[in-house]
Automatic annotation (TrEMBL):
Pfam families: Aminotran_3
Keyword Transferase included in the entry's annotation: yes
Protein name: Aminotransferase class III-fold pyridoxal phosphate-dependent enzyme
PANTHER family in UniProt: ACETYLORNITHINE AMINOTRANSFERASE, MITOCHONDRIAL (PTHR11986:SF79), AMINOTRANSFERASE CLASS III (PTHR11986)
Cofactor: pyridoxal 5'-phosphate
Top-level taxonomy: Bacteria, Bacillati, Actinomycetota, Actinomycetes, Micrococcales
Similarity field: Belongs to the class-III pyridoxal-phosphate-dependent aminotransferase family.
GO molecular function: identical protein binding; pyridoxal phosphate binding; transaminase activity
Coiled coil feature spans: none
Top-level division of the source organism's lineage: Bacteria
Keyword vocabulary terms for this entry: Aminotransferase, Pyridoxal phosphate, Transferase
Length: 443
């Protein structure tokens, strides 16, 4: 039986809890007002709210639950390791799961990666990569891309800015050493508006000019911090021409390529790392979310010998790679190693193309539909002006889809609707969900 919603949203119990949330949690919360229910329980790919309504889960903890809720192998590995090791500080006292996880990641990483620096969160991994790049190169500046997301620390809020208003509110002014350039292939979203061109073949020259406009000497730039597919900006996926050009530019100026694969890594794009899709060989590669297997928090910086071996920079912290988290992550990597996960991801990609693709052209408010692997995004515009974002329409679609039992990602600051299921979601459930979303759009 398919997921089903039987109350108005929010239901009575959710309403009570949301009122408590408003009173006690600091805001503005990301997407706070957008989710009109409170989690009751979650199993596999289905969420049940506290009023007994059920939803197909197209959020998958924003990618941190890649195998659905409580995958048995991961649960068993976490519990066994916790029974054996308890909580331990791995940066001081090593244990086997920690070392095995590092070795496995080095084994499967693209390019010349030889070492790993453990962190708990993706944010710390990205911060750590900035620290390493600056330390190794002796250069202060990082090129970031507008529209990306790298985490909530002060530096990364400035160095990415999915949410341009947060930058205009002034976070960037606290943070020297960030130069933001627009992400390529920008489409209609307000935070991407402004000077073009967005043609990838011209784009690299544009970056060069942009850097000069900021009066940045290329030899002051330590590295380029970029998501291979910009997830929270709406599944923007640059072309091979862009990546080839960027790689050449990095070589020309000796900029380090820092790939943020916190979202894209470990299967989301249909390859183990998105870097493989474009033949990228990063100097530093950041993992999080997908690497956890859906168990406990694990993230980290993977790097080349040049970046990692000679550096005095230290990353980590008390909770970084505690043994049970590493055991869960290893179980997740075992699941990924079975090729059926990646073939399922590609099956989901085909379904998104078939079911959502035709909405462009058919429905005026659907400006664009994009998909990569187990990731799909609809971008809404007004019928009168296809460059004008349509937030009310987006909100209505999000609510209508939830009433039909589909829970996905829709943030108030962006005219995007993003479906990010677990890599293992059954194709039938994904197809059903896409059809509910299409009907919600037509309704
Ligand atoms: N980098 C990317 C691309 C992300 O999507 C995220 C989180 O959404 C992060 C970094 C930050 O990771 P975390 O939330 O674990 O700190």
């Amino acid at each position: 039986s398919w997921p089903q919603v039987n109350t108005v949203l929010p239901g009575p119990r959710s309403s009570e809890l949301l009122a408590r949330k408003d009173r006690v949690l600091q805001g503005p919360l990301r997407d706070g007002e957008n989710v009109p229910f409170v989690l009751g329980q979650k199993h596999g790919h289905v969420i049940e709210d506290v009023d007994g309504n059920t939803f197909a889960d197209h959020v998958s903890a924003w990618g941190a639950a890649p195998y659905g809720a409580q995958p048995p192998l991961v649960r068993e590995a976490v519990n066994t390791a916790w029974d054996r090791y308890g909580m331990e500080i791995s940066q001081y006292l090593s244990s086997e799961p920690v070392l095995s996880l590092a070795e496995r990641l080095v084994e499967i990483a693209p390019g010349q990666i030889t070492r790993v620096a453990p962190t708990v969160t993706g944010t710390e991994a990205v911060e750590g990569s900035v620290k390493l790049a600056r330390e190794v190169t002796g250069r202060p500046i990082i090129l970031g891309f507008l529209g990306q997301y790298h985490g909530e620390s002060t530096y990364l809020t400035a160095a990415a800015s999915t949410d341009l208003p947060s930058n205009t509110r002034g976070f960037a002014q606290y943070v020297p050493g960030v130069v933001l350039v627009p992400y390529p292939q920008s489409f209609r979203a307000p935070f991407h508006r402004g000077p073009g061109p967005y043609d990838d073949t011209l784009y690299l020259e544009y970056i060069r000019e942009w850097v000069l406009r900021y009066q940045v000497e290329p030899d002051q730039v330590a590295g380029v911090l970029i998501e291979p597919v910009a997830g929270e900006a709406g599944i923007l996926s640059p072309s091979q021409a862009f990546w080839d050009g960027l790689t050449a530019m990095c070589q020309e100026y000796d900029w380090k390529l820092i790939l943020d694969e916190v979202q894209t890594g470990l299967g989301r794009c249909g390859t183990v790392f998105a870097a493989e899709r474009w033949g990228l060989e990063p100097d530093l590669l950041l993992v999080g979310k997908g690497v956890t297997g859906g168990g406990q928090a694990v993230a980290g910086v993977l790097g080349t010998e040049e970046m990692m071996a000679g550096s005095a920079a230290h990353l980590g912290g008390t909770y970084a790679w505690e043994p049970a988290a590493c055991a869960g992550a290893l179980a997740g990597l075992d699941l990924l190693a079975d090729g059926s996960v990646l073939s399922n991801v590609m099956a989901l990609e085909s379904i998104a193309r078939e079911e959502l693709g035709p909405l462009v052209g058919e429905v005026g408010q659907v400006g664009d539909v994009r998909w990569v692997g187990a990731w799909a995004c609809l971008e809404f515009v007004t019928v009168a002006d296809a460059t004008e974002p349509a937030p009310e329409f987006q909100h209505a679609v999000h609510l209508a889809a939830m009433r039909r039992g589909v829970f996905a990602i829709s943030e108030e600051s962006k005219p995007l609707y993003r479906m990010q299921p677990a890599l293992t979601m059954e194709p039938e459930l994904f197809r059903w969900s896409c059809r509910q979303v299409a009907d919600a759009i037509r309704e």
